[in-house]
Protein backbone atom coordinates (compact mmCIF):
# COMPACT_ATOMS: atom_id res chain seq x y z
CA UNK A 1 0.00 0.00 0.00
CA UNK A 2 3.00 2.29 -0.11
CA UNK A 3 2.45 2.56 -3.85
CA UNK A 4 0.14 5.36 -4.98
CA UNK A 5 -1.29 3.28 -7.81
CA UNK A 6 -2.55 0.61 -5.45
CA UNK A 7 -3.58 3.13 -2.79
CA UNK A 8 -5.90 4.67 -5.35
CA UNK A 9 -7.50 1.34 -6.08
CA UNK A 10 -8.24 0.37 -2.50
CA UNK A 11 -8.95 3.75 -0.96
CA UNK A 12 -12.58 4.68 -0.24
CA UNK A 13 -13.53 7.86 -2.09
CA UNK A 14 -15.87 10.23 -0.30
CA UNK A 15 -17.82 13.17 -1.66
CA UNK A 16 -16.00 16.43 -0.90
CA UNK A 17 -15.60 19.93 -2.28
CA UNK A 18 -14.39 18.75 -5.69
CA UNK A 19 -16.12 15.38 -5.81
CA UNK A 20 -19.88 14.94 -6.01
CA UNK A 21 -21.46 11.91 -4.30
CA UNK A 22 -22.10 10.41 -7.76
CA UNK A 23 -18.51 10.88 -8.82
CA UNK A 24 -17.25 9.30 -5.60
CA UNK A 25 -19.49 6.30 -6.28
CA UNK A 26 -18.26 5.98 -9.85
CA UNK A 27 -14.64 6.14 -8.69
CA UNK A 28 -15.20 3.45 -6.08
CA UNK A 29 -17.06 1.27 -8.55
CA UNK A 30 -14.37 1.55 -11.22
CA UNK A 31 -11.74 0.24 -8.81
CA UNK A 32 -12.00 -3.37 -9.91
CA UNK A 33 -9.41 -5.99 -9.12
CA UNK A 34 -9.11 -9.53 -10.46
CA UNK A 35 -8.33 -12.43 -8.15
CA UNK A 36 -7.44 -15.73 -9.85
CA UNK A 37 -8.60 -18.41 -7.40
CA UNK A 38 -7.32 -21.98 -7.47
CA UNK A 39 -8.87 -22.89 -4.10
CA UNK A 40 -5.41 -23.76 -2.88
CA UNK A 41 -4.47 -22.22 0.47
CA UNK A 42 -2.80 -18.99 -0.67
CA UNK A 43 -5.38 -17.61 -3.09
CA UNK A 44 -8.20 -18.61 -0.71
CA UNK A 45 -6.55 -16.84 2.22
CA UNK A 46 -5.92 -13.74 0.10
CA UNK A 47 -9.58 -13.59 -0.93
CA UNK A 48 -10.60 -13.93 2.69
CA UNK A 49 -8.34 -11.06 3.72
CA UNK A 50 -9.85 -8.92 0.95
CA UNK A 51 -13.28 -9.74 2.34
CA UNK A 52 -12.11 -8.68 5.82
CA UNK A 53 -10.81 -5.45 4.29
CA UNK A 54 -14.21 -4.76 2.75
CA UNK A 55 -15.90 -5.41 6.11
CA UNK A 56 -13.47 -3.08 7.82
CA UNK A 57 -14.10 -0.36 5.23
CA UNK A 58 -17.85 -0.70 5.67
CA UNK A 59 -17.52 -0.43 9.43
CA UNK A 60 -15.19 2.58 9.46
CA UNK A 61 -16.22 4.47 6.30
CA UNK A 62 -19.96 4.83 6.87
CA UNK A 63 -20.90 1.77 4.85
CA UNK A 64 -18.79 2.67 1.83
CA UNK A 65 -16.23 0.41 0.16
CA UNK A 66 -13.35 1.38 -2.08
CA UNK A 67 -13.02 -1.54 -4.46
CA UNK A 68 -14.74 -4.46 -6.20
CA UNK A 69 -13.38 -7.99 -6.53
CA UNK A 70 -13.89 -10.32 -9.48
CA UNK A 71 -12.83 -13.83 -8.58
CA UNK A 72 -11.78 -15.91 -11.57
CA UNK A 73 -11.67 -19.70 -11.55
CA UNK A 74 -10.16 -21.41 -14.61
CA UNK A 75 -11.24 -25.03 -14.91
CA UNK A 76 -10.94 -28.25 -16.85
CA UNK A 77 -14.35 -29.59 -17.85
CA UNK A 78 -13.94 -32.66 -15.63
CA UNK A 79 -13.48 -30.46 -12.54
CA UNK A 80 -16.27 -27.99 -13.15
CA UNK A 81 -19.01 -29.51 -10.96
CA UNK A 82 -16.78 -29.83 -7.92
CA UNK A 83 -15.19 -26.45 -8.41
CA UNK A 84 -18.54 -24.71 -8.73
CA UNK A 85 -19.94 -26.46 -5.65
CA UNK A 86 -16.88 -25.56 -3.60
CA UNK A 87 -16.98 -21.94 -4.71
CA UNK A 88 -20.69 -21.80 -3.94
CA UNK A 89 -20.13 -23.18 -0.43
CA UNK A 90 -17.28 -20.77 0.21
CA UNK A 91 -19.27 -17.80 -1.01
CA UNK A 92 -22.38 -18.77 0.99
CA UNK A 93 -20.40 -19.49 4.15
CA UNK A 94 -18.32 -16.32 4.22
CA UNK A 95 -19.08 -13.66 1.64
CA UNK A 96 -22.83 -13.09 1.70
CA UNK A 97 -22.39 -9.71 3.39
CA UNK A 98 -20.24 -8.52 0.51
CA UNK A 99 -22.22 -10.12 -2.30
CA UNK A 100 -22.23 -6.82 -4.17
CA UNK A 101 -18.46 -6.49 -4.03
CA UNK A 102 -17.27 -10.05 -4.63
CA UNK A 103 -18.39 -11.88 -7.76
CA UNK A 104 -17.30 -15.35 -8.89
CA UNK A 105 -16.60 -16.06 -12.57
CA UNK A 106 -15.69 -19.35 -14.23
CA UNK A 107 -13.78 -19.81 -17.47
CA UNK A 108 -13.09 -23.14 -19.10
CA UNK A 109 -9.44 -23.64 -20.09
CA UNK A 110 -10.77 -24.85 -23.42
CA UNK A 111 -11.73 -21.27 -24.30
CA UNK A 112 -8.05 -20.54 -24.84
CA UNK A 113 -8.40 -22.50 -28.08
CA UNK A 114 -11.84 -21.25 -29.14
CA UNK A 115 -12.25 -19.09 -32.23
CA UNK A 116 -8.55 -18.55 -32.76
CA UNK A 117 -6.14 -18.48 -35.66
CA UNK A 118 -3.56 -21.14 -34.97
CA UNK A 119 0.00 -21.65 -35.96
CA UNK A 120 2.08 -24.77 -35.80
CA UNK A 121 5.40 -24.20 -34.08
CA UNK A 122 8.10 -26.76 -34.67
CA UNK A 123 11.83 -26.88 -33.89
CA UNK A 124 14.42 -28.57 -36.06
CA UNK A 125 17.71 -30.23 -35.16
CA UNK A 126 19.44 -26.86 -35.07
CA UNK A 127 16.96 -25.65 -32.44
CA UNK A 128 15.48 -23.16 -34.85
CA UNK A 129 11.75 -22.70 -34.85
CA UNK A 130 9.43 -22.43 -37.84
CA UNK A 131 5.78 -21.54 -37.78
CA UNK A 132 3.00 -22.15 -40.22
CA UNK A 133 -0.61 -21.11 -40.19
CA UNK A 134 -2.86 -23.99 -39.22
CA UNK A 135 -6.50 -23.88 -40.20
CA UNK A 136 -7.58 -27.06 -38.44
CA UNK A 137 -9.78 -26.63 -35.38
CA UNK A 138 -7.89 -27.52 -32.26
CA UNK A 139 -8.77 -28.22 -28.65
CA UNK A 140 -7.32 -28.69 -25.21
CA UNK A 141 -7.49 -32.47 -25.36
CA UNK A 142 -5.38 -32.63 -28.54
CA UNK A 143 -3.02 -30.17 -26.94
CA UNK A 144 -2.54 -32.13 -23.71
CA UNK A 145 -2.09 -35.40 -25.59
CA UNK A 146 0.94 -33.93 -27.29
CA UNK A 147 2.68 -33.41 -23.96
CA UNK A 148 3.94 -36.77 -22.71
CA UNK A 149 6.44 -35.01 -20.47
CA UNK A 150 4.78 -33.75 -17.26
CA UNK A 151 7.10 -30.76 -16.92
CA UNK A 152 6.36 -29.48 -20.43
CA UNK A 153 2.66 -30.08 -19.89
CA UNK A 154 2.71 -28.09 -16.65
CA UNK A 155 4.73 -25.35 -18.33
CA UNK A 156 2.37 -24.96 -21.26
CA UNK A 157 -0.73 -25.14 -19.03
CA UNK A 158 0.74 -22.35 -16.89
CA UNK A 159 1.00 -20.17 -20.02
CA UNK A 160 -2.57 -21.02 -20.95
CA UNK A 161 -3.87 -20.03 -17.50
CA UNK A 162 -1.81 -16.85 -17.18
CA UNK A 163 -2.79 -15.70 -20.64
CA UNK A 164 -6.48 -16.38 -19.96
CA UNK A 165 -6.34 -14.46 -16.67
CA UNK A 166 -4.57 -11.49 -18.26
CA UNK A 167 -6.92 -11.49 -21.22
CA UNK A 168 -9.89 -11.47 -18.84
CA UNK A 169 -8.43 -8.51 -16.95
CA UNK A 170 -7.79 -6.72 -20.25
CA UNK A 171 -11.35 -7.22 -21.44
CA UNK A 172 -13.00 -6.25 -18.16
CA UNK A 173 -10.92 -3.19 -17.35
CA UNK A 174 -9.44 -4.42 -14.12
CA UNK A 175 -6.82 -2.17 -12.59
CA UNK A 176 -4.81 -4.94 -10.98
CA UNK A 177 -4.46 -8.70 -10.88
CA UNK A 178 -3.85 -9.93 -7.33
CA UNK A 179 -1.98 -13.22 -7.34
CA UNK A 180 -2.13 -15.36 -4.19
CA UNK A 181 1.50 -16.57 -4.34
CA UNK A 182 3.10 -16.95 -0.91
CA UNK A 183 6.81 -16.23 -0.40
CA UNK A 184 7.49 -19.97 -0.63
CA UNK A 185 5.61 -20.25 -3.92
CA UNK A 186 7.47 -17.26 -5.37
CA UNK A 187 10.77 -18.81 -4.29
CA UNK A 188 9.94 -22.07 -5.99
CA UNK A 189 8.75 -20.25 -9.11
CA UNK A 190 12.07 -18.39 -9.18
CA UNK A 191 14.26 -21.47 -8.82
CA UNK A 192 12.11 -23.45 -11.25
CA UNK A 193 12.40 -20.68 -13.83
CA UNK A 194 16.19 -20.77 -13.47
CA UNK A 195 16.35 -24.56 -13.73
CA UNK A 196 14.18 -24.47 -16.83
CA UNK A 197 16.38 -21.86 -18.47
CA UNK A 198 13.75 -19.15 -18.09
CA UNK A 199 15.75 -16.95 -15.75
CA UNK A 200 15.42 -14.01 -18.14
CA UNK A 201 11.72 -13.87 -17.32
CA UNK A 202 12.01 -13.59 -13.53
CA UNK A 203 11.84 -9.82 -13.68
CA UNK A 204 8.59 -9.81 -15.62
CA UNK A 205 7.04 -12.28 -13.18
CA UNK A 206 7.87 -10.06 -10.20
CA UNK A 207 7.19 -6.72 -11.81
CA UNK A 208 4.55 -4.91 -9.74
CA UNK A 209 5.70 -1.38 -10.46
CA UNK A 210 4.78 -1.13 -14.13
CA UNK A 211 1.64 -1.65 -16.16
CA UNK A 212 1.62 -4.88 -18.16
CA UNK A 213 2.91 -3.89 -21.59
CA UNK A 214 1.74 -7.01 -23.35
CA UNK A 215 -1.86 -6.15 -22.53
CA UNK A 216 -2.25 -2.55 -23.53
CA UNK A 217 -0.84 -1.16 -20.25
CA UNK A 218 -4.23 -1.56 -18.61
CA UNK A 219 -3.34 -3.24 -15.33
CA UNK A 220 -0.57 -4.07 -12.88
CA UNK A 221 0.23 -7.25 -10.98
CA UNK A 222 0.41 -7.53 -7.20
CA UNK A 223 1.53 -10.28 -4.83
CA UNK A 224 0.10 -9.28 -1.46
CA UNK A 225 1.28 -12.47 0.29
CA UNK A 226 4.87 -12.30 -0.90
CA UNK A 227 6.21 -11.71 2.63
CA UNK A 228 4.42 -14.70 4.10
CA UNK A 229 5.64 -18.29 4.20
CA UNK A 230 3.37 -21.03 2.93
CA UNK A 231 3.37 -22.72 6.35
CA UNK A 232 2.05 -19.46 7.83
CA UNK A 233 -0.63 -19.19 5.16
CA UNK A 234 -1.60 -22.79 5.88
CA UNK A 235 -1.75 -22.20 9.63
CA UNK A 236 -4.00 -19.19 8.97
CA UNK A 237 -6.23 -21.47 6.88
CA UNK A 238 -6.85 -23.65 9.92
CA UNK A 239 -7.30 -20.85 12.41
CA UNK A 240 -9.73 -19.03 10.12
CA UNK A 241 -11.66 -22.21 9.30
CA UNK A 242 -10.83 -22.06 5.60
CA UNK A 243 -9.25 -25.52 5.39
CA UNK A 244 -12.55 -27.21 4.58
CA UNK A 245 -13.03 -25.02 1.50
CA UNK A 246 -9.76 -25.94 -0.20
CA UNK A 247 -9.68 -28.11 -3.30
CA UNK A 248 -6.86 -30.44 -4.43
CA UNK A 249 -4.74 -29.17 -1.57
CA UNK A 250 -4.30 -30.09 2.08
CA UNK A 251 -2.95 -27.31 4.27
CA UNK A 252 0.17 -28.28 6.27
CA UNK A 253 -0.04 -28.28 10.05
CA UNK A 254 3.67 -27.65 10.72
CA UNK A 255 3.04 -24.49 12.77
CA UNK A 256 0.05 -25.83 14.69
CA UNK A 257 0.51 -27.04 18.25
CA UNK A 258 -2.35 -29.44 17.76
CA UNK A 259 -1.54 -31.54 14.72
CA UNK A 260 -4.21 -32.76 12.36
CA UNK A 261 -3.90 -36.52 12.18
CA UNK A 262 -5.42 -36.85 8.73
CA UNK A 263 -2.62 -35.23 6.72
CA UNK A 264 -0.83 -37.83 4.65
CA UNK A 265 2.64 -37.15 3.29
CA UNK A 266 2.76 -36.83 -0.48
CA UNK A 267 3.90 -40.25 -1.66
CA UNK A 268 5.05 -39.14 -5.09
CA UNK A 269 8.39 -40.52 -6.28
CA UNK A 270 11.06 -37.95 -7.06
CA UNK A 271 11.55 -39.26 -10.58
CA UNK A 272 7.85 -38.72 -11.36
CA UNK A 273 7.89 -35.12 -10.18
CA UNK A 274 7.89 -32.08 -12.40
CA UNK A 275 10.63 -29.50 -11.88
CA UNK A 276 8.17 -27.27 -9.99
CA UNK A 277 7.11 -30.12 -7.71
CA UNK A 278 10.72 -31.00 -6.97
CA UNK A 279 11.61 -27.44 -6.07
CA UNK A 280 8.44 -27.16 -4.00
CA UNK A 281 9.46 -30.27 -2.08
CA UNK A 282 12.89 -28.78 -1.43
CA UNK A 283 11.40 -25.59 -0.01
CA UNK A 284 8.82 -27.52 2.00
CA UNK A 285 11.67 -29.50 3.54
CA UNK A 286 13.73 -26.46 4.50
CA UNK A 287 10.92 -24.12 5.53
CA UNK A 288 11.10 -25.18 9.17
CA UNK A 289 14.79 -24.61 9.87
CA UNK A 290 16.09 -22.52 6.98
CA UNK A 291 13.22 -20.23 6.07
CA UNK A 292 15.72 -17.37 5.60
CA UNK A 293 16.86 -19.12 2.40
CA UNK A 294 13.36 -18.63 1.02
CA UNK A 295 13.20 -14.93 1.78
CA UNK A 296 16.71 -14.46 0.32
CA UNK A 297 15.62 -16.07 -2.94
CA UNK A 298 12.52 -13.88 -3.16
CA UNK A 299 14.29 -10.65 -2.17
CA UNK A 300 17.03 -11.33 -4.72
CA UNK A 301 14.54 -12.17 -7.47
CA UNK A 302 12.65 -8.98 -6.67
CA UNK A 303 15.81 -6.94 -7.33
CA UNK A 304 16.55 -8.46 -10.73
CA UNK A 305 16.06 -6.07 -13.61
CA UNK A 306 15.11 -7.00 -17.12
CA UNK A 307 18.22 -8.14 -19.03
CA UNK A 308 19.36 -6.04 -21.95
CA UNK A 309 17.74 -7.32 -25.13
CA UNK A 310 19.82 -8.45 -28.06
CA UNK A 311 17.20 -7.24 -30.47
CA UNK A 312 14.69 -4.79 -29.21
CA UNK A 313 11.15 -5.93 -28.72
CA UNK A 314 11.36 -9.44 -30.09
CA UNK A 315 8.79 -11.60 -28.34
CA UNK A 316 8.79 -15.35 -27.95
CA UNK A 317 6.13 -16.97 -30.14
CA UNK A 318 5.14 -19.35 -27.36
CA UNK A 319 5.37 -17.62 -23.96
CA UNK A 320 5.24 -14.01 -25.22
CA UNK A 321 8.22 -13.09 -23.04
CA UNK A 322 10.90 -10.73 -24.34
CA UNK A 323 13.82 -12.58 -25.91
CA UNK A 324 17.21 -11.63 -24.51
CA UNK A 325 19.48 -14.46 -25.59
CA UNK A 326 20.00 -16.39 -28.79
CA UNK A 327 19.23 -19.76 -27.28
CA UNK A 328 19.45 -21.71 -30.52
CA UNK A 329 22.95 -20.42 -31.29
CA UNK A 330 24.19 -21.40 -27.88
CA UNK A 331 22.61 -24.85 -28.10
CA UNK A 332 24.14 -25.38 -31.55
CA UNK A 333 27.55 -24.51 -30.17
CA UNK A 334 27.40 -27.17 -27.45
CA UNK A 335 25.69 -29.94 -29.41
CA UNK A 336 26.82 -32.22 -32.21
CA UNK A 337 23.90 -33.26 -34.35
CA UNK A 338 25.70 -34.97 -37.24
CA UNK A 339 25.12 -38.67 -37.37
CA UNK A 340 27.84 -41.28 -37.76
CA UNK A 341 27.44 -44.74 -39.21
CA UNK A 342 27.40 -47.83 -37.01
CA UNK A 343 30.92 -49.22 -36.72
CA UNK A 344 30.75 -52.52 -34.89
CA UNK A 345 28.27 -55.28 -34.19
CA UNK A 346 26.97 -53.61 -31.03
CA UNK A 347 26.30 -50.33 -32.88
CA UNK A 348 24.50 -52.20 -35.62
CA UNK A 349 22.34 -54.05 -33.09
CA UNK A 350 21.42 -50.79 -31.33
CA UNK A 351 20.60 -49.20 -34.66
CA UNK A 352 18.39 -52.16 -35.59
CA UNK A 353 16.57 -51.88 -32.23
CA UNK A 354 15.98 -48.18 -32.79
CA UNK A 355 14.87 -48.79 -36.36
CA UNK A 356 12.13 -51.18 -35.21
CA UNK A 357 10.97 -48.99 -32.35
CA UNK A 358 8.34 -46.24 -32.07
CA UNK A 359 11.16 -43.74 -31.70
CA UNK A 360 12.00 -44.10 -35.36
CA UNK A 361 8.34 -43.63 -36.30
CA UNK A 362 8.26 -40.47 -34.24
CA UNK A 363 11.46 -39.27 -35.85
CA UNK A 364 9.99 -39.82 -39.33
CA UNK A 365 6.83 -37.96 -38.33
CA UNK A 366 8.90 -35.09 -37.05
CA UNK A 367 10.93 -34.90 -40.27
CA UNK A 368 7.75 -35.04 -42.35
CA UNK A 369 6.15 -32.25 -40.30
CA UNK A 370 9.36 -30.26 -40.40
CA UNK A 371 9.47 -30.45 -44.18
CA UNK A 372 5.88 -29.31 -44.59
CA UNK A 373 6.23 -26.45 -42.12
CA UNK A 374 9.56 -25.09 -43.33
CA UNK A 375 8.47 -25.26 -46.97
CA UNK A 376 5.52 -22.94 -46.47
CA UNK A 377 6.19 -21.46 -43.08
CA UNK A 378 8.45 -18.78 -41.76
CA UNK A 379 10.93 -18.64 -38.94
CA UNK A 380 9.54 -17.83 -35.52
CA UNK A 381 11.48 -16.38 -32.58
CA UNK A 382 11.57 -18.61 -29.49
CA UNK A 383 13.18 -17.98 -26.10
CA UNK A 384 15.66 -20.49 -24.70
CA UNK A 385 13.19 -21.92 -22.15
CA UNK A 386 10.56 -22.51 -24.82
CA UNK A 387 13.07 -24.26 -27.11
CA UNK A 388 13.65 -26.69 -24.25
CA UNK A 389 9.93 -27.04 -23.51
CA UNK A 390 9.12 -27.68 -27.16
CA UNK A 391 11.84 -30.35 -27.21
CA UNK A 392 9.76 -32.30 -24.66
CA UNK A 393 6.57 -32.20 -26.71
CA UNK A 394 5.59 -34.92 -29.18
CA UNK A 395 7.27 -34.35 -32.58
CA UNK A 396 8.73 -31.13 -31.10
CA UNK A 397 5.67 -29.43 -32.45
CA UNK A 398 2.82 -27.57 -30.82
CA UNK A 399 -0.28 -25.86 -32.18
CA UNK A 400 -0.71 -22.49 -30.56
CA UNK A 401 -3.04 -19.50 -30.99
CA UNK A 402 -1.46 -16.70 -32.95
CA UNK A 403 -0.87 -13.71 -30.80
CA UNK A 404 -2.95 -10.99 -32.37
CA UNK A 405 -5.46 -8.36 -31.39
CA UNK A 406 -8.07 -10.87 -32.36
CA UNK A 407 -6.89 -13.18 -29.59
CA UNK A 408 -6.86 -10.34 -27.09
CA UNK A 409 -10.35 -9.16 -27.96
CA UNK A 410 -12.05 -12.50 -28.50
CA UNK A 411 -14.61 -12.44 -25.69
CA UNK A 412 -14.19 -15.25 -23.20
CA UNK A 413 -17.32 -17.23 -22.45
CA UNK A 414 -17.90 -17.35 -18.75
CA UNK A 415 -20.24 -18.58 -16.06
CA UNK A 416 -21.09 -16.34 -13.18
CA UNK A 417 -22.00 -17.71 -9.77
CA UNK A 418 -25.47 -16.41 -9.03
CA UNK A 419 -27.46 -16.64 -5.82
CA UNK A 420 -29.85 -19.23 -7.22
ZN1 LIG B 1 9.26 -18.40 -24.57
Structure notes:
The chain is α/β, with parallel strands linked by helices. It has one domain (4-116, 137-318, 404-416): HUPs (Rossmann fold), CATH 3.40.50.620. The protein contains 16 helices and 10 strands. The strands form 2 sheets. The protein has a 6-stranded mixed beta sheet, sandwiched between helices. The chain has a 4-stranded antiparallel beta sheet with strand order 8-5-4-9. Helix 7 (183-195) packs across helix 10 (275-286) and helix 7 (183-195) packs across helix 11. The two termini are 36 Å apart. 32% of the residues are buried. It binds zinc ion. Zinc ion (ZN) is lined by residues 316, 318-319, 321, 382-383, 385-386. It comes from Zygosaccharomyces mellis. GO terms for molecular function: nucleotidyltransferase activity; sulfurtransferase activity; tRNA binding. Belongs to the CTU2/NCS2 family. This is Cytoplasmic tRNA 2-thiolation protein 2.
Query: Which class of secondary structure composition applies to the elements?
Result: alpha/beta
At the fourth level of CATH, the homologous superfamily is HUPs
Mean pLDDT: 89
- Sequence of strands across the biggest β-sheet: 7-6-1-2-3-10
Task: Give a quick set of tags describing it.
alpha/beta, 4-stranded antiparallel β-sheet, 420 residues, Rossmann fold, globular, 6-stranded mixed β-sheet, 10 strands, binds zinc ion
Amino acid sequence: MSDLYFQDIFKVMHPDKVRSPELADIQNKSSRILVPLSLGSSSTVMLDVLNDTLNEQKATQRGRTGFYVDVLLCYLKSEFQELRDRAKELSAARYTDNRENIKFHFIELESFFNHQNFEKLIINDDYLCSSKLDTQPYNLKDFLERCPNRTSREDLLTFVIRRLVKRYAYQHNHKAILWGHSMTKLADETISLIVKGRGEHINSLFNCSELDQGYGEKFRHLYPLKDILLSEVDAYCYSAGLDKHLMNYTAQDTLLLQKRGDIKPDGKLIRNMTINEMVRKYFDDIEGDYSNVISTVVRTADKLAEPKSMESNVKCSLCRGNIHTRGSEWLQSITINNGCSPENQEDRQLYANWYDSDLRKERDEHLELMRSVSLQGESAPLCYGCIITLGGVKNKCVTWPQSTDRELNQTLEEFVLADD
